[in-house]
Amino acid sequence: MNQGMSLTIVCEQVEVVEQRSELTLVELCRCARTSAELVAELVEHGLLTPRAGAGPDWRFEGRSAAIARRAARLVDELGVNAAGAAVAIELLDRIERLERTQRG
Amino acid sequence: MQFKDYYSILGVARDAKPEDIKRAYRKLARKYHPDVSKLPDTEERFKEVGEAHEVLMDAEKRAAYDAIGTPGSDQREFRPPPGWDTGFEFSGGDAGAGFADHSDFFEALFGRRGSQRRGSAAFQERGEDHHAKVLIDLEDAYQGARRTVTLRVPVPDGQGHVVLTERRLEVSIPRGVLPGQHLRLAGQGGPGSGGAPAGDLFLEVVLRPHALYRVDGRDVRFELPVAPWEAALGAEIDAPTPQGSVRLTVPAGSVQGRSLRLKGRGLPGDPPGDLYADLRIVLPPAESDTARRLYQEMADKLAFNPRATLGV
Fold this sequence. Notes:
The complex is a heterodimer of chains A (about 100) and B (about 300).
Chain A: E1 8-11, E2 15-16, E3 23-24, H1 25-32, H2 36-44, E4 59-60, H3 64-78, H4 82-103
Antiparallel strand pairs in A: 3-4
Helix pairs in contact in A: 1-3, 3-4
Chain B: H1 6-10, H2 18-32, H3 42-56, H4 59-67, H5 104-110, E1 130-136, H6 138-143, E2 145-156, E3 162-173, E4 182-185, E5 201-207, E6 214-216, E7 219-226, H7 228-233, E8 235-239, E9 246-250, E10 259-262, E11 275-281, H8 289-301
Parallel strand pairs in B: 1-5, 7-11
Antiparallel strand pairs in B: 2-3, 4-5, 6-7, 8-9, 10-11
C-alpha cells in the first residue's frame, strides 16, 4: 500500500543486552517481555539472583535477560508456574549436558 | 491459501468441549514447544497448535470458523466465501500481541490483530517495545555481520483498521553474540505518544544449526574423524575450525572420544570460548585384500581382548 516505506533503516547502535554489566528490574522485564511479578517469583525460586538492591531497585546481571525470557516463554506458552519453569529449565540443561557427554 | 483444519491439528472432534480442547492443546504445546522439544520444525507446529487453540477456545471465533465449513479432503486451497468478513465482529481484547504471528489463513478469517494502542494521545507514553528474532550463522557470531531484518509492523490506517507495513532494518550483528541473547535497537519500537520517546526493538538471536559445529555457551565442539593408527601412534593432521583449518597434533595413545582443546578458538568474548575436537576413530573397511591381510595380521599377532574388563 505504502510503497514509500520500503527503504532500509541502518542501525549501527546495537547493544547486546546480556553483555550489559547491569540491568534494572524494568530493563530486565522489557527485554524478557515479562512482569515484575514473574521476575520476583523466579528470584524466589533461585532461577534469577539479583546482584544488588532490593525489591523494585533490584539490579541483575546482563545474562539474566536470556534466562528470564526462557522462563517467561515456558510460563506464557505452557501454562506452568515459576516453580515449574525453574524445574523444566534445570532438567533441560541437564539433558543437554548428558547428550553432550554421550556424544563425546 | 491453505485451509487449516484446527480440529485435526489438535486431534479433537468437531463437537469437542472446551475442556477437551484445552487438554489436547496443553499436551501438544508441551510436545512441540521449541524450548522443550527436539523434534524437527517444532516452531511451525507449535504456532499451528497455538492458533488452533486460540480459535477453538474463543466462542466467537469458533462459531465463525465452523460457519465456513470443512473443505473436502482433496480441497487444500481455501478461498474465503464472499462477504465472510462482514458478518462477524470480534471483540478482540488480545493482550500483548507485539507481533501476532498468525498464518495467512487465520488472518484472512479474523484479520490482522496488531498492537492496538490504548489510552489517549494526550498522555505522554513511551512507545511499545517490539520483539522479533534474528537468524544468524555460526560464522556471523565469530566475525560479526550485517543482517537485514524485515518486520511486519501493524500501523493504524486512520480508518479504524490496522494494516501491516514492512520495515527493513539493516542490523550490525556484534561478534561474539550467543544464541538466546538479545540485541536492543533503541528507539526502533513503536512510536511514543504526546512527545514521549519511541519503544525499543529487541531481537532475539537464533543460531542456524551447523552441519559440523555445536555451540555450548561460548565453547564450540565438533567431531573429528581419525584413523586408528593416527590415534594409536599420534599424528599431525589438518582440522577444520570456523576460522579456517589448523594443524593439530593428535597425541599418541588417544582413545575414542578424547577431546582436543583449541584454546581461545571458541566464540569470541572476554574471555573467548574454546574449540573442542572430539576424536572419533573410524575403521578402514576390510574391502581390499591388503586391508584384510593387515587386519588378519593384527588378529594373529596382537594379544588384544577388547572385552577383558567384561570378565569373558
